[in-house]
Amino acid sequence: MAAQALVMFAAGIGIPLLAALNARLGANLGSPAAAATVLFVVAFLAAGATLLFTGPASLRGLAGQPAHLFLAGLLVAFYVLSITWIAPTFGVGNAVFLVLLGQLVSAAAIDHFGLFGAQVAQVSALRLAGIGLMGLGVALTQLAPR
Description:
The protein is an all-alpha fold. The chain is 77% helix and 0% strand. The protein contains five helices and no strands. Helix 1 (2-29) runs antiparallel to helix 2 and helix 1 packs across helix 3 (71-90). It is globular, with a radius of gyration of 18 Å.
């Protein structure tokens, strides 16, 4: 569990870094779409190398998967394109704040209803309070004087 938590913490650190780096690349290139394309090419190569290392045989079952599962790729594209386009003018902190707020709400709904095979975790009053407190904490980080 500690190793998993550490990996997810590192992934969380990576989200604002991704936003800042790709936003700067998009601004430098004058095209958020070009920056997103470069990001996806690099990500594709990294994922492909990982797949080769871990065993590409797992792709055999791909054709039998429900079509809605492929929407995840569109969601990643939406996130990368939107953060690359918006962060340079809106601010990385503001953009990531709203992404985090959206993640809290979405994760709670997914867990509450067990969507997409997720482990069910009912949204209790205590959990709602915790989510609200997390949202307030993230909001306070954006209110601090700059």
